[in-house]
Specification:
Length: 584
């Protein structure tokens, strides 16, 4: 086997192992079918992930493609076209599917409490108030993230868009980078390696857990920074990497697990720069927090440590089984009643990991897989090993491997590839949103296409005559209206009230994204009502129309049948009318 073939096989094996991480994370259902039991699937998944990633770290350098000139295969142009088509279809389909998650799940506390806290924190800061306070959602929640995480959300808030567009761009960054790597490899005729990177991109894009995370995810915004850090380390740009390292800790404090491995690496690779790297890491971590530390040090400490400790140990550990149903060691310790052992065991695990990293890096091992392993060890032993912690681990490994693809390998500057990747991810989101989001949405209530947008309060789809419709069961209902425009508009509704007394009317109050937009009276027959929705009430993305009714009664209570639903109004259609632009 020649040099080129051996390198291709090594790259392919590594890519398949990287893809397997995402598969295992989403495999709890079939592991449960295999093992049975309640907590066994989580323990098996934790064991499999630990074994896989330890093996990756220890074999990383043996899977490293051979140094020196790399061969080129034939048919590069055709292979590049095929790679571009495959990657384009994959990314476009993924962006559309992830965008749909945003459109059918509004940003509400029950699903996205951390995003709600981030949004409220930014609004408080804009009013000149300290964002690091306790928020009531109605449960208490703290803003436990640094400015590097919440600052990117300022952009969509400023343009009155759903803040999860920033999440979407961050989540697409690494798949786009994988696609670029595959395209460059295919252009050089290295079809096997290019196909392997398409497989990695597909594993990320098709991850059921990641798709579910999109609608309430808050950590994806720093994934481009995670990639930049990995590429700086691979290029041995230690001082810029130290700054990126500190900023990652500002974004999410779990990243502190990587810091010792990074410092160990600089000590062994470029000892003269070790002091500067340590100083830059500490400075880039501390400086973003300084204004808030001066503002209210007690509040900052409580949000980042005290509040989390109280929530985990005083509520989650005591009143729920959330931790027992998570991938990691903590749930097992809690099930044994070893609550006090959680933190000591985490310290021991981390010290063992750092010791192994020191030995491996001293012998010349690549540092990035050991950084990922340290982050995995921390995630598996933290107070609550939520599943999305593992995305950081897996993406760090993917970005480490991407650094050895031709478009990054040997380049001391990562700003160009990083900027291009971020721009392409942003362009993909903007173009998909423009193609997907209507300027004036129209819902044919009662049809399957409208059902995902009937957020709450609606009974099943029905039809009669030439109409599809759905009854509202109760005195409240919520309809989602996806829209790409913030122009003034009118919301039109065709509906009819359920009224045992035909001469009575149903009174309705409407609000758009929490902004009252009017009232209406609905009679027993089909009628049309209009609500004027001004520009300031709309946002780009999903909009929440809340309807509140004066009464609801069941046909059984009214002596009109056996139906026990509490009926208020039946809805046929909902659509948005925008004023026509006047021609000059």
């Amino acid at each position: 086997m020649g040099r080129y073939d051996a390198a291709s096989v090594k790259t392919t094996v590594r890519c398949l192992a990287l893809a397997l991480n995402f598969v295992l994370l989403s495999s709890l259902t079939w592991i449960g079918d295999w093992t049975g039991g309640d907590t066994e699937p989580y323990l098996v998944a934790a064991l499999l992930l630990a074994v896989l990633n330890v093996a990756l770290a220890m074999s990383w350098d043996r899977l490293e493609p051979d140094a020196g000139p790399r061969g080129r295969g034939s048919g590069g142009a055709w292979l590049a076209i095929l790679a571009a088509v495959a990657a384009g279809l994959l990314l476009a389909g993924t962006c559309g599917a992830w965008l749909q998650q945003i459109l059918i799940y509004p940003n509400e506390p029950q699903r996205a409490d951390q995003l709600i806290v981030v949004e409220q924190g930014i609004r408080r800061l804009a009013e000149g108030k300290n964002p690091y306070v306790v928020y009531h959602l109605p449960w208490d929640a703290q803003l436990s993230y640094g400015p590097v995480l919440w600052a990117p959300y300022v952009v969509p808030l400023t343009i009155h868009a759903d803040i999860r567009f920033a999440t979407l761009i961050g989540a697409l960054f690494v798949p786009v980078a994988c696609a670029i790597g595959a395209l460059v490899l295919a252009r050089r005729g290295r079809w096997l390696e290019g196909a392997a990177w398409i497989v990695v991109a597909a594993a990320i894009c098709w991850s059921a857990d990641l798709e579910r995370f999109i609608s309430y995810g808050h950590t994806a915004v720093y994934w481009p920074l995670l990639a930049g850090f990995a590429w700086l380390v691979a290029a041995e740009q230690w001082l810029p990497a130290a700054i990126a390292m500190g900023l990652l800790v500002v974004a999410r404090t779990t990243m502190v697990a990587i810091v010792p491995v990074f410092w160990i690496t600089v000590w062994h690779r470029r000892r003269a720069a070790a002091g500067a790297a340590v100083a830059l890491t500490i400075a880039s971590t501390a400086v973003p927090f300084l204004p808030f530390l001066v503002w209210d040090p007690k509040a900052l400490f409580y949000n980042f440590y005290g509040g989390y400790q109280n929530t985990m140990k005083g509520y989650v550990w005591v009143f729920t089984t959330f931790v027992q149903h998570s991938i990691g060691l903590t749930g097992l310790l809690l099930s044994w009643g070893w609550q006090r052992a959680v933190e000591p065991i985490q310290i021991l695990v981390m010290l063992a990991t750092y010791g192994a990293a020191w030995r491996a890096i001293a012998r010349g091992a690549s540092p990035l897989p050991w950084m990922a392993l340290a982050l995995l060890a921390f995630s598996m032993t933290t107070l609550w090993p939520v599943y999305y912690l593992y995305f950081d681990v897996f993406l760090l490994l993917v970005c480490a491997a991407l650094a050895r693809t031709p478009w990054l390998e040997g380049s001391p500057r990562v700003v160009g590839p990083w900027s291009v990747t971020l721009a392409l991810a942003g362009l993909l989101v903007v173009s998909t949103a423009r193609a997907t989001l209507p300027r004036a949405p129209r819902l044919n209530v009662g049809s399957p296409t409208a059902r995902p947008y009937l957020r709450s309060g609606f009974s099943g789809d029905e039809n009669g005559g030439d109409r599809n419709y759905a009854w509202i069961d109760g005195e409240r209902a919520t309809i989602l209206l996806p829209r790409r425009s913030r122009r003034d508009a009118t919301i039109e509704v065709v509906w009819g009230a359920f009224l045992p007394n035909p001469s009575a009317t149903q009174e309705v109050r409407a609000a758009l994204n929490g902004e009252p937009i009017g009232t209406a009276s609905v009679g027993a027959g089909w009628s049309q009502a209009s609500f004027r929705a001004p520009r300031h009430a709309w946002r780009i993305g999903v909009n929440q129309l809340d309807l509140e009714f004066s009464s609801a009664v069941s046909p059984r209570e009214a002596g009109l049948g056996d139906d026990t639903r509490q009926l208020s109004v039946v809805v046929d259609r909902v659509w948005v009318e925008t004023p026509r632009r006047q021609s000059r």
